[in-house]
Specification:
- This is Pseudouridine synthase.
- It is a single chain.
- The chain is of the alpha+beta class and about 375 residues long.
- The chain folds into two domains: about 70 residues, RNA-binding S4 domain (Structural Genomics Hypothetical 15.5 Kd Protein In mrcA-pckA Intergenic Region, Chain A, Roll), CATH 3.10.290; about 230 residues, 2-Layer Sandwich (Pseudouridine synthase), CATH 3.30.2350.10.
- Helix content is about 20%, strand content about 20%.
- A hairpin with a 2-residue loop joins strand 2 and strand 3.
- Helix 2 packs across helix 3.
- The termini are far apart.
- The relative contact order is 0.16.
- About 25% of the residues have low confidence.
Length: about 375
């Protein structure tokens, strides 16, 4: 009490720090609120909640009475707690086979559907290994080299070496950057086969000054000894009198294609680094290191190829080959192609690395051989 008879206000002690919990569902929360910018190139706009009649149609289309509740499937996949997953569904942030579901009572069979939360693919029951290797210069793209040169296998531990991994495509000895390793033969096939037109992005240090006219030539296409080729994106990042830094994106997997097109415009490549495959970026991963793909990265990879974890394919990819990946090639091999093959290629895609799978348009298939070294 004060001298005037008024009650002195009491000071509320500060609340103890709360334990770290699963992010609360809402506009600024949810399981994918904190996205590493090195791992996700661009955020996709969230879809609006469907109208009542559309929501009822979506429920009827995806509901399987013999399946498991959707929120339980999401919780088991590590998205969030079951209660938070219920909120995510009610907010219209969950898609099943491309349909927004807002009824928590929907049941699905996880092995038979594709699920996205905030546009990010949810992976379930992954049986294969999917690794990213940041290849240094001087390493040959083979698991072991009979000539004793540095190879991929030198960077694997004993457990990973025994997993039957193959490298997805090739980078020549002096090319650096992103190289995927997997024991999923179907995934490796789709990432390397030219009919699937998987975009790859490179950072090129070219000799001399690459001009705007050279950039237009690359976009329009040049004629090489094995046929015409054009890049899909080209950005001049930095230029001086002796060198130019250029970023190019293209689908073709023809042997040493990036080096050859820059030789053709008389700006030989001094250094070449592959920085991205689709929306997967090497980011700040140290050279010479290998790490497993994260859930979001694997989700983007599955969307890019239409392959389900464990070797299944979705409705876009036809039947799934059942053969296991072939043995790792030796250094004398000209290409690294697993034996698994799909019966029908996916529709051709454009070469816009940041674009979403749903926005890729159909385009004319470009001439090109199987994935080769750069």
């Amino acid at each position: 009490m004060t001298s005037s008879g008024k009650r002195r206000p009491t000071r509320t002690p500060p609340r103890a720090a709360r334990a770290v919990r699963t992010p609360r569902a809402g506009a600024s929360g949810g399981p994918f609120a904190d996205v590493d910018p090195q791992r996700l190139v661009v955020d996709e706009a969230r879809r609006a909640k469907p109208r009542l009649d559309e929501a009822e149609d979506n429920f009827a289309a995806v509901h399987d009475p013999s399946g498991e509740r959707l929120q339980k499937v999401l919780a088991r996949a590590g998205v969030a707690s079951r209660r938070v997953c219920e909120s995510l569904i009610a907010e219209g942030r969950v898609e099943v086979d491309g349909r927004v579901v807002v009824e928590p009572g929907v049941r699905v069979r996880a092995e038979a559907v594709r699920i996205h939360v905030d546009g990010v693919r949810v992976t379930l029951g992954v049986e294969h290994q999917y690794l990213m290797f940041n290849k240094p210069a001087g390493v040959v793209t083979t698991m072991s080299d009979p000539q004793g040169r540095p190879a991929i296998g030198d960077h694997l531990d004993a457990e990973t070496s025994a997993a039957g991994l193959v490298h997805v495509g090739r980078l020549d000895r002096e090319t650096e950057g992103l190289l995927l390793l997997t024991n999923d033969g179907e995934m490796a096939h789709r990432l390397t086969h030219p009919s699937y037109e998987v975009p790859k992005t490179y950072l090129v240090e070219a000799a001399g000054r690459v001009t705007a006219a050279d950039r237009r030539r690359l976009l329009a296409g040049v004629e090489l000894e094995d046929g015409p080729i054009a890049v899909d994106e080209c950005r001049i990042l930095e230029s001086s009198g002796s060198r130019t830094m250029v970023e190019v994106t293209l689908h073709s997997g023809r042997n040493r294609i990036v080096r050859r097109i820059f030789d053709h415009i008389e700006h030989p490549v001094r250094r070449l680094v592959r920085t991205a495959i689709g929306r997967l970026t090497v980011g700040d991963q140290p050279q010479g290191t290998i790490r497993p793909l994260g859930r979001q990265e694997l989700g983007h990879l599955l969307d890019l190829t239409g392959v389900e974890p464990g070797g299944r394919t979705d409705s876009r990819g036809g039947e799934t080959a059942t053969e296991a990946p072939g043995p790792a090639p030796t250094s004398g091999s000209s290409q690294s192609t697993p034996s698994a093959r799909a019966s029908g290629p996916k529709q051709a895609r454009t070469n816009r690395a940041p674009s979403s799978a749903s926005s890729r348009s159909t385009r004319r298939r470009r001439p090109g051989a199987q994935e080769g070294g750069r």
